[in-house]
Structure formats: structure tokens, C-alpha cells
Design brief:
239 residues, alpha/beta, 8-stranded parallel barrel, 10 helices, 35% helix, globular, cytoplasm, 1-(5-phosphoribosyl)-5-[(5-phosphoribosylamino)methylideneamino] imidazole-4-carboxamide isomerase, isomerase, Aldolase_TIM, histidine biosynthesis
């Protein structure tokens, strides 16, 4: 059964969503992300994906106090990303209650640093963030598209011990037009034992069902939930 991972994206301590990573499109859904987290927990959710969008923009962890509030006042298992550029940032995230962190840009720009995180903290606590546009890796809050091919990039880190990857198709993110099921199936065929966490484009429970039927282990979703297209009561079958 597919693992459900709602997302809470944070700007200035508020729960927001963007469209295709464009900060100018931000929409505030709740002034207090803790309220959202508690609501999710009360409805049976056990996992949470928290993104520090301020941190991603500034290149350093910023919203760790919000992370701490969520982690200390819920029992949710949290993975945290955004602005993690140095080991001190990673340590702050863990000290603030994250059980896992997701590294994306750092894995492209400083592979030795990211590799050292895997070695020090363990692959069960370090997730690879693989954000792609036209199957090329994008970094820096999606502002920069590289020439790095998506699947070989993931394969390289899989060989270094990474077991879980959060893969976002930027073209789909925030568009509510469906996830890139075929892309995730390609990754699964290339690396059958990889734990793929699909992200971007989920617009309905039917989209989650499609990913589940395709054998994708987990899915991150946010905007569809906040816009009311997905009702938490309709997710009980997956829990």
C-alpha cells in the first residue's frame, strides 16, 4: 500500500504552496503550520514532508523553529528539506525534530559533502531530492536547470547507499493536472529496489490510486489537499 506524505511548505513561518516553484505564486493556506500538522495527525496521517522555502531561497536553514514546534507537539515522522547547505544545517534540522532530511541542490553542487552526510548520519536518515525538468536535474529552488540526466543521477547515489529518493517533476508541481506516473515507472524499472517518493501534480485520490497501481511506494501531495480536491476521509483506504 502506498505511503501517504502530505507536504507543508513554509515561508515566513506560514503554510504556503507555490506553482512550479515560482515564489511569486505563493498562496497562504494557514498562518500556523502546527495547526495543519495536528489536523493531519488527527486524521490518521503518520508522515510529513516539511520544506523550508525561505531556506531554499537563502541557502541556509531558516524555519527550524517551526519544524521544532511541529515535531515537539505531534508524533508525526518528519522529513525536512530546504536550505541545507552545511553539516551544521543538517544537525539543526535533526535537533529540531526531523527524523530525515532531504538534500537536493547540495547533492549536485557538492557531491562529496552530500556523500559525507550519508556516511555520517546513515542512508535511512538522508533522502535524495531529485527535482527534474524535462528529465534534467533542477537546483536552487528550481531556478536553475542543469545538464545532469535524472535517472543516471539517481543511480549514482543509489550506488553510494541512498535508498529513498523524493522525485518531483517540476512541470507538474502545483498544476493539479496529475503526476508523472510514466516517469516514476521508468525510474522503478531502472532501479527496482529504490524507494521512490513521487511528488508533484497530484490532483485527486484517483491520482494516488494510479501511483499505487504502478507500484510506487510513496507519494507527497499538498495543494490538492489544501484546495479541497482531496478529503482526508477519502484516504482512509490507504491507511
Amino acid at each position: 500500500m502506498i505511503e501517504l506524505i502530505p507536504a507543508i511548505d513554509i515561508i515566513e513561518g506560514k503554510c504556503v504552496r507555490l506553482t512550479q516553484g515560482d515564489y511569486s505564486t505563493r498562496k497562504v493556506y494557514n498562518e500556523d503550520p502546527l495547526e495543519v500538522a495536528k489536523m493531519l495527525e488527527d486524521n490518521g496521517i503518520r508522515r510529513l514532508h516539511v520544506v523550508d522555502l525561505d531556506g531554499a531561497h537563502e541557502g541556509r536553514i531558516i524555519n527550524y523553529r517551526t519544524l521544532d514546534r511541529i515535531a515537539s507537539r505531534t508524533s508525526l515522522i518528519i522529513d525536512f528539506g530546504g536550505g541545507l547547505k552545511g553539516e551544521s544545517d543538517v544537525e539543526i534540522a535533526f535537533e529540531s525534530g526531523a527524523q530525515m532530511i532531504t538534500g537536493g541542490s547540495i547533492a549536485v553542487r557538492e557531491p562529496e559533502t552530500f556523500g559525507a552526510w550519508i556516511d555520517k548520519f546513515g542512508s535511512e536518515r538522508i533522502l535524495l531530492g531529485a527535482d527534474a525538468k524535462d528529465r534534467k536535474i533542477a537546483i536552487g529552488g528550481w531556478k536553475e536547470t542543469t545538464d545532469v540526466e535524472l535517472i543516471p543521477f539517481i543511480e549514482g547515489y543509489y550506488k553510494k547507499g541512498i535508498t529513498k529518493v523524493v522525485c518531483t517533476d517540476i512541470a507538474c508541481d502545483g498544476m493539479l493536472q496529475g503526476p508523472s506516473v510514466e516517469l516514476y515507472k521508468e525510474i522503478r524499472e531502472a532501479i527496482p529496489t529504490l524507494y521512490i517518493i513521487a511528488s508533484g501534480g497530484v490532483s485527486s485520490v484517483a491520482d494516488i490510486e494510479r501511483l499505487d497501481e504502478a507500484g510506487i511506494p510513496a507519494v507527497i501531495f499538498g495543494k490538492a489537499l489544501y484546495e479541497g480536491r482531496i478529503q482526508l476521509r477519502d484516504l482512509l483506504r490507504f491507511m
